[in-house]
Amino acid sequence: MSHRILKIKRRYIAVKCRPEYALDMDKVYESIEEMFRRLFGEVFLVDSRLRRIRVKRLDESIIIVSCSHIYLGKVLAAITLVNSVDGEAAALDVITVSGTLRALKRKIRLRVS
Question: What distance in Å separates the CA atoms of residue 69 and residue 29, rounded to the nearest whole number?
Fold first, then answer.
C-alpha cells in the first residue's frame, strides 16, 4: 500500500507599509499575525504557516510574508484589516502575490519602478 504525501504549496505576499517612515517591520509582521489570530484563531494561525521572509536589497517599506496556499484568502483579509502598527495609524497595501520568491521579486521591481 502506497501512502501519498502532499507537498504544501506556499504563496509569497509583498506588502507595502504606509507611512513608510518610522515603522518597524517586525512590529508590522506582529500586527498581521495578531489580526489573523483575532479573526480566525490560534489553530488556523498554526495551520496557515504564516512566516515573515527576510530579503536583502528590498525597499525598506516592503515586507514579504509567506503562507500555505489554502489560507491565502484569510491572510489577505488579515493584512487588509490591519489599521495600526504599535499604536500608530498605518495602512498595509498588498503589492503582489506569487508562488516563488524569484517571481515575487521580479513583480515588485516591475510595479515599484
Answer: 18
Mean pLDDT in the chain?
89
Contact 67, 75 (CB under 8 A): yes
* CATH homologous superfamily for the domain 10-112: Ribonuclease P, Pop5 subunit (3.30.70.3250)
The per-residue pLDDT for range 13-50, each reduced to its tens digit, is 999 988 876 678 889 999 999 999 999 999 999 999 99
Please say whether the beta carbons of 72 and 97 come within 8 A: yes
What are the C-alpha distances in Å from 10 to residues 78, 85, 90, 100?
Answer: 17, 25, 27, 8
Query: Residue 84: which residues within 8 A CB-CB, separation 6 or more?
Result: 31, 90
Residue among 56, 46, 58, 54 nearest 8 (CA): 46
Which cell is 54 given? Answer: 527576510
Mean pLDDT, residues 94-109 taken together: 92
